[in-house]
Amino acid sequence: MDSGIDLLNSNPGLFNAVINYPAVCLPLLDTAFVEIMTDLEKLSQDDDILIAKANAHVRISNLPQVPAYFRTSIPTSDDVGKLVSVTATVTRSGPVNMVVEMRMYECPKCHGTFPVRADVDRNCQIVPPVVCMANEIPGCKATKFKLIPDDQAHQATMPLRSYQEIKIQEQVNKLSLGTISFSFY
Ligand SMILES: [Zn+2]
């Protein structure tokens, strides 16, 4: 967990990148976080104190209280794909589901491998790739890819993440007079 205010003060460029392109930046921060933990574990004299976790994530909390990032109203279509903080009341919550976060695919033409992450816009399902993202050969034209590892036992060890659908409602005391309180899934 990292404070958005601390991140803005220490590295405004990185803060803006995370706010505007979270789908790209948060996985990169996850990778950097795991690499830092692994380096610290190697430097540690005592093996029991520092143990690197492979399935760890960076979360940004405490965003600066300015309208660009911090809202008391339902986000609009302009906010799609951006990181915003919303203060609202949770009026309904669905079950917590576990979904596979990422799967690796192998290209039959260039033999490169690449990850495909769960798509939040499609109920966190992993959409099978239709273009090669391995970057082994520029312009690789493969359209079908092999899931690796493809046996069920290995698939059971794939990284999981929890996923929950909630309904939120704007808080009436935070709205201007005469404004209707909207809700949002
Ligand atoms: Zn390929």
Brief description of this entry?
The protein is an alpha+beta fold and 185 residues long. The chain has helices spanning 4-10, 12-20, 22-43, 152-155; strands at 2-3, 60-61, 70-71, 85-86, 89-93, 97-100, 102-106, 113-117, 146-148, 160-163, 166-169, 183-184.
Please bin the fraction of helical residues.
10-25%
> Total strand count, please?
12
Mean pLDDT: 84
Strand proportion, as a percent range, falls in 15-25%
In the predicted model, the low-confidence regions spanning at least 5 consecutive residues are: none
The rounded distance between the terminal residues' Cα atoms is: 25 Å
Radius of gyration from the alpha-carbon trace, in angstroms: 20 Å
> Outline, from the CA principal axes?
globular
Number of H/I helices: 4
Sheet with most strands: strand arrangement: 5-11-12
Features:
hydrolase; binds zinc ion; alpha+beta; three-stranded antiparallel β-sheet; helicase; single chain; 23% helix; globular; 185 residues
Explained architecture:
Helix content is 23%, strand content 22%. Helix 1 crosses helix 2 and helix 2 packs across helix 3. The protein has helices at residues 4-10, 12-20, 22-43, 152-155; strands at 2-3, 60-61, 70-71, 85-86, 89-93, 97-100, 102-106, 113-117, 146-148, 160-163, 166-169, 183-184. With 185 residues, the chain is an alpha+beta fold. The chain is built from four helices and twelve strands. The strands form five sheets. A three-stranded antiparallel β-sheet has the order 5-11-12, with no helix packed on it. It is globular. It starts with a strand and ends with a strand. Zinc ion (ZN) is lined by residues 107, 109-110, 112, 132, 134, 136, 140, 142.
